[in-house]
Amino acid sequence: YALRRAARAKAAREAASEEEWDQLVAAARDEGPLAAVGPPGTGKTTVLDKVARQVQRDGGRVLFALPTGLQASRTRQRHPEADVDTCAGAFLLYKDALEAMDLLSGYDLVVVDEVSQLSQGDFERIYQMWEVTSCLHSCSPAISGSCQASRAAKPKTARAGGRS
Question: Which runs of E-coded beta strand occur in 67-164?
Answer without folding.
Answer: 83-86, 109-112, 140-145, 156-159
